[in-house]
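Q: Structure tokens for this one, please.
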Amino acid sequence: MRNCSSGFSEEKERKMIRSNLLVQVFAALLSAFALCSPSVAAESASIGNIRHIVVIYAENRSFDNLYGMFPGANGIASALVNYIPQVDHDGSPFTVLPPVWANEKDLKSRETDPTYPATLANRPFRIDESPVDTPLDVKTRDLVHRFYQNKEQINGGRNDRFVAMSNAGALVMGYYDGSRLPMWSLAREFTLADNFFMGAFGGSFLNHFWLVCACTPEYRNAPGNMVTVEDGSGRLVHQKDSPRSAMEGPVLLKDGAVTPDGFAVNTVQPPYQPSAIAPAAGGDPALADPDNPHRLPPQRMKTIGDTLADGGISWAWYAGSWKRALADRSVIYNANDVNFQAHHQPFNYFERFAPGTVNRERHLRDGEEFLADIDGGTLPQVAFYKPTAKLNEHPGYTDVLSGDRHIAEVIARIRNNPKLWDQVAIIVTYDENGGFWDHVAPPPGDRWGPGSRVPTIIVSPFARKGAVDHTAYDTTSILKFITRRFGLEPLPGVRADAGDLTNAFE
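A: Here is the predicted structure, written as tokens:
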């Protein structure tokens, strides 16, 4: 009840209360800012000093496969504490792991690789020690790394179907002592992220899209023989002659490149050269044959390149052997040469980067130009670098050590340029796990991912020193970091729950 003897009207009383509340709120905000300003200022100073962001994209290694023995990381030792055994198709745990199947092309041959014991215990094992003794500088066979397989391998977070859904048997459980790797030393000097997940389930094709657009490409009206056959739960249908047990041979599946509703999730080829699809006879030599069904229709989604260009930020995607592949198609998927992998250049799928466009000329560049721009101090503000296949660490056609040394050498060149080093953040990560097991369950996501955990190292004068960052990240975190640093609108597909990498910096 209002005190009538006070001399205030009701309206004046309300105004005074509002004024007092505003004063109190303002005082509280000033106090909060005073308490928080040191950390805010520190972050602003650190991140704000970054003038260049370099993303180096290696290939096909899970975190446990290379960094499972890294001190302070959530690795093999942690996995074995509450180890979940691998299970067969019927859900029963393997007594021993299946053999390593030798023939990657003919899964029905059931030939075994004598490099590996026929019976390995149902648990992770070292590839580089007895009885296998395959060191980091020796390549292994490739492993299946496809969309539906990876999703089923994860099995709702249990990660217990990696062996059953692989074409490589026990090899999926293999890991290395990575302490010999030059990048291991850089991880110890700077920041290793041990909770970083590939953006999408599956392989390189889809994960390169998620790096540049946080999206899944569309392929409406794909031919029926390219479409996956799903069961009622969204899993792959097994072929009639598929072994009942993974102990008898690799699983045989009715797999395809395209989902039933028209999204490309496994490798299809770029519509522009360089592509595994040759130009049409008498057609435009800059194009892949438009009538070939394995050619992905040109995509039109917004990419990080569009966002950067719209914001006036210089950028480029540097691909190893890009110019060579444009001049000589024989090097495309040629393991005896530089082995240019056409599906590792994601911008070559987008209409805005078609041959003859200014965007293509300005932003799609060669790996040698990347090295020259480092040495000359002319790197754009954002640079993506994809090493040629001989140096990308992909099982099957290269080894781990060669690519790791190459990446470390690239970083050394950056550090040797004081002007560049003083203002750079380098993010070294892997596109996907390559089919190798990892024990950490991906965080809840969406239909497309995130997929399995991969190594990620942040190298920068502003990075935390000697740190292991446990923040939950995925590939879209790189996009979030780029757009945050330059004050740009985030791409719609980035995941809200994924960190933006700022915790990796001082």
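A few notes: The chain has 13 helices and 14 strands. The domain at 46-74+176-217+298-504 is CATH 3.40.720.10 (Alkaline Phosphatase, subunit A).
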